[in-house]
């Protein structure tokens, strides 16, 4: 069985951030079956303030990556589009889990779940009150099992829908009005 190591890094680690950006492009181009997305599509101003993770294999090659941004409103989210209106409130601070990718050769080994858990634990440590995540349909069931609640379809501004992929927004409230954490990390 292959050994993997999950590492958290900041934007100051240019080598790992560039590798994560490259991996985002490789995975999405492979997913849609053609060269649609340049690396520049997968980097933005949020990379500089976000928390990042990479999963490295035994050869120290990054095979999966993800990021977490914290904001006080959904209007500040990466790829926010005013056409995305939802009939629910998002309690701030809000953690936005995004940019999750797993290299095709390493999928179905639990790496996405591992990155989800790392980001949820970080959101809790940063005292976020809710988590929001945008996912394609094949990730919906897993999020529901983790206690995330479906919010609605999103309007895409990054050309992913032109490639035939619809995204769905999910949320999870982490704290009550009194600031008490719901559940424990094992249940997340």
Radius of gyration, whole Å: 16 Å
- Which CATH top level class fits? Alpha Beta
> Could you name the ranges where pLDDT drops below 50 across 5 or more consecutive residues?
176-188
**Helix count?**
3
Distance between the termini: 25 Å
Described by strand count, sense and barrel closure, the largest sheet is:
7 strands, mixed
Question: Which architecture would the CATH scheme give at its second level?
Answer: 3-Layer(aba) Sandwich
Give the class from helix and strand content and strand pairing: alpha+beta
CATH T-level fold name:
Aminopeptidase
Assess the beta-strand content as a share of residues.
Answer: 25-35%
Describe the secondary-structure layout.
Layout: E1 5-9, H1 14-32, E2 51-56, E3 62-71, E4 94-102, H2 111-125, E5 130-136, H3 140-145, E6 149-153, E7 167-173
Parallel strand pairs: 4-5
Antiparallel strand pairs: 1-2, 2-3, 3-4, 5-7, 6-7
Provide tags for this entry.
188 residues; Aminopeptidase; 26% strand; 7 strands; 7-stranded mixed sheet; globular; alpha+beta; disordered C terminus
């Amino acid at each position: 069985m292959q050994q993997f190591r999950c590492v958290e890094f900041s934007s100051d680690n240019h080598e790992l951030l560039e590798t994560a950006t490259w991996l985002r492009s490789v995975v999405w181009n492979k997913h849609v079956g053609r060269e649609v997305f340049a690396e520049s599509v997968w980097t933005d101003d949020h990379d500089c303030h976000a928390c990042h993770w990479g999963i490295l294999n035994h050869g120290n090659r990054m095979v999966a990556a993800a990021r977490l941004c914290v904001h006080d409103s959904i209007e500040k989210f990466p790829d926010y589009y005013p056409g995305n209106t939802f009939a629910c409130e998002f309690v701030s601070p809000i953690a936005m889990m995004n940019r999750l990718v797993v290299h095709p050769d390493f999928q179905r080994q639990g790496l996405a779940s591992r990155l989800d858990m790392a980001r949820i634990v970080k959101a809790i440590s940063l005292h976020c009150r809710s988590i929001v995540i945008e996912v394609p349909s094949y990730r919906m069931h897993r999020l529901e099992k983790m206690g995330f609640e479906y919010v609605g379809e999103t309007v895409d501004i990054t050309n992913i829908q032109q490639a035939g992929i619809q995204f769905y927004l999910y949320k999870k409230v982490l704290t009550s009005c009194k600031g008490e954490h719901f559940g424990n990390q094992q249940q997340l």
